[in-house]
Each structure stands twice: as structure tokens, then as C-alpha cells.
Amino acid sequence: MGGQPDLGRADLLTMLAELTTKPAAEVPDRIGSMELAWLVHLVEQRYDRQLDLTDDELAGIRTVDDALAVFRASLTAPADG
Amino acid sequence: MDEVLFAGRPTDICLRLPEPIDRATLHRLVTAAQDRLVAAGLRPGGAAALRLPPSLAYVVNLLATWRAGAQAILLDHRLTDHEVDRALARLTPQVVVAPVRSGGGALRIFVDVTEGVSGYADGPAVSGHAVIQLSSGSTGPSKVIGRTAADLVAEVRRYTRIDGVALPGERIILLPSMVHVLGLVGGLLYGLHAGVELVPPERLSGDAVLAAISAGATPATVLGVPFHIGLLASTRPTGPLPQFRRMTTGGELVPAAVAQAFTDRYGVPLGNMYGMTEVGVIGTDLHGSHRPSILPAPGIEVRETDGELWVSCPASPYVGLSDPTRWADGWLHTRDAGTVDPATGLVTVRGRLDSQVSVGGMKVDLTEVEATVAELPGVSAAVVVWDDGITAYVQPDGPLSEETLDKLLAERLAGYKRPRVLHLLDSLPRTTTGKLVRSTDALRSAATP
Lengths: 81, 449
Hints:
The complex is a heterodimer. By secondary structure, chain A is mainly alpha-helical. Chain A has a single domain, classed as Orthogonal Bundle (Non-ribosomal Peptide Synthetase Peptidyl Carrier Protein, Chain A), CATH 1.10.1200.10. Chain A has 4 helices and no strands. Chain A is globular. Chain B folds into 3 domains: about 1-145, Rossmann fold (3-Layer(aba) Sandwich); about 150-355, 3-Layer(aba) Sandwich (Rossmann fold), CATH 3.40.50.12780; about 360-445, GMP Synthetase, Chain A, domain 3 (2-Layer Sandwich), CATH 3.30.300. The longest helix of chain B is centred in the N-terminal third of the chain and has 17 residues, at about 25-40.
């Protein structure tokens, strides 16, 4: 993972806090398409690689925990090229 | 329509998806689509409902509808079947255009769509407008908004007179949906009219926006909503971007820290626009020199009445029942609180006076969300408020899980309208006379065990 520590739930909450200007402790667990796009973008910036996600994978993400599971799976898959 | 939108050279590139679509190709696609719409039953004076995601198919069918002398009803592709069915029943289009297949991958801004056309009703359009848009729901007065062809042309020409818009031969990196007014008129129609290339980034990420900017040599203006400023502000550019000319956003107010982070990183002007579905662009500050204020666009008058901003609008934009507190005597009552500086004419928007909120640039009426929640089976009462996000407090009339509630709402409300936080309470706080309490503080404490 490019020398970065493993992605954790707290990381995603911090990223969402930045978007919603709420403290991380008050970030809602339920996320919509905008929050999801934001998370994908910041995770990609952090690991300096594109997450290879399908429409179906994204459509199945309803909560922070769902997102974490999908991102982790994508990050542990071999990078393209 | 052809003289306004198709007047340029046939070889000029209109769209890069990323494969270039020139004016002659677009014209050919539009003519073919027009034949399909007519074959499916569209007649001059009728209406076609477009239920398409941002796509070449959307652009082509929209222009084809107008060329056929018909009205285009724009339905956001995120609306649920429930929401679409209600809109169609009210607006009775002759044909409905919807995807039969779509693809292209996740987080796409422009989608590959193969569309299908089906017949729906058999009568004229409900009004003489060229385009119909829905403002958060289709029921109740002043929810269905129409714009005439003359009004759309006037707005396109207004754009050509605003200092700081992308110029002929330049590019617009297009992020907002072309189903809504900023992307539709400020992006698509202005771009086609002025000879500005429209370039949707390959996907919704900061890297993809920067890649779109650097993919061409001509000056590029990024058009978006405040969410996209944050996206770019948090992206590390991999090299210089001499083509990047400006970023312009519409929608809600931008937090000063986000604007500063963007400017520090890119050093280009961050322009601001204020507009509404009813009239299009109202005012701009494309050089970012009056932030957060804007100067009225050419030909637009803005005045302040009892703390509310009113905008000149010769005819009521509402279809069917028009609420006289929304439009009267040539003035649109914006429901935005604000001030107009008598010396400079600068307009400062201070926020909404009603229950509308902005979610990523999309207007959502909390009254609609609350009514939808309250009508669900198993719900006896509900209050929906904005608490840094759409938040619903629900009093069930029997056993009801959050999961069930979420599932029922997903069938009835587009994702961007759905509550991010649901609180199930045995009883909602009420006043001594039995009215539901709407104070966020009181609701929060009622939800704290």
C-alpha cells in the first residue's frame, strides 16, 4: 500500500468530517453518492493510485463500514500494470 | 434552434467524451434521433420526457426534441420510479426516453447510454415552454418550472455578455449535471452557441479534472459546484497547468477556508455564480473579487424586499398552480435572504428563508422529504430538519427498524434527498398544544438516551 498504514474506519470518518465540517465523532454512518465520491477521491490521493471499483460495488455501499470493506479489498488487490 | 446552437463551422469540436464530436456529427445524430422520436409519436406541441443520465444520448435527444418543435421534460436520472411516475402522470409526455443499457464504469460524469423511446400519452404538452424542470417534487404549486425558448436564448446571450466566461475556442471542463440549469445553460447551450468545447472529465475525481485540463492546449474553465472546489483543493497536481484559466461554481456559499485552499494551490480566479432554475443565471463574480457578493447579470434586476431577494422575471415560470408568494407582477421571490448594496448594486445572498437546502448543489425541499417519511407505512409522525445534513426524527406506530425505514425511503426518494441520519423515537417532542417541535436542539436531546 505504498508505505501507507492500513486504511481504518477512523481515517474515513476524518475524511468525511472534512467534507461535512462536523467533528469526526458526529459524522453519520449512512453515506450518499457525494460522500462516496469524496472518500474514493481522498483514498486515491492518499495511496496515489486509482481504486478499480465497479458500478455494482459502489452501488452496494450504504455505510462507512461498507465503504471501508470495499476500499480495503481494492487496495489489497494487485495494482494495474 | 439551429441558428442559435448549430451556427458554427461543421468541423468545430463541440464535445470531447474524450473522443471528439464535431458540429456536423452532432447535427447528424440529432437529426436521426428526431426521426426516432417522431416515429414513436412525438408531435410539434407535444412533450418528450428525458430520463437519462448525463450522456451523449441526453444531449442528442434534448436537441432532437426541440428540433421536433416539442417540449423537453428533464427528469434527473437519480429520481426513483415512484417520483418519475408521479411526474409523468402530471406532465403527460407523448414519449419517454430512458436507457435500455448504460455503462462505462463507476463515478462516471458522462455515461455510455443506449436509449429506448416509448410512447406514453397522446396529447399536447401541458404548457408552451421549451423545457420543464422539477424543483424538488412534482406535486403542489410552484414545483414544476417551465422556461420558454425565448427565455433560454436570452439567458445564453446573457452569458456572452458576462466578463469571465469561457470564450470561443476555449474549453469548459463540465462537472455539473446538464439536466439542471447551470450545466444545461451555462455549460451545454452556451458552449454550443459560443463555440466552446465541452469536456466532461472521465470520472468524478480531482485527478480526472486535472487530466481533462491538461489534455488540451486551449484555455480551460472548470465549471462545478462547491463540492468540486474541495475535490480540486485536495488534489496534488503532477505538473504545471498553464491552460487552467478559472474555476466557476454555482450553488451554495463556499466556506472561506475551502476557497482559500483552492486559490493557494492553483492561483487561478475562483468565480462564483448565483442562479435559479426559474430564471437561470442571476448574477456572477467570476473574478472572485467580490466574494461572497455577486453583480447582477446583464438585463437582470435584483431588489431586496423585507430581507428577501426578488429577481426580475417577466412571466411566471410555474406550470399549473402558481403560488403568488413565489412570483407576482414580474418579480420572482427567490426565498433567499439577502441584501442589495444601493451604491454598488452588489447582491449578497445570506441563505434560505424556507425549507429548501442544498445538497451538493442540488436543491432539496425538506417539506417533501418530511411528507414522504410521514406517509410511510408504520410511521405515525416525522420531523425532518437540516442539522449539517438531512436528519429525520421518526415516531413509529408499531415495530419499525431503521433498516426497513431506509429501504422504504430508497423506493420513494432519490438518493440525494434521503436522510443521512434517522432517529426512531417512541414519541416526538411536541409543544403543549400538540404541535411537532422543529428545533434541532430539542430534537437532538430527545434522541439522546
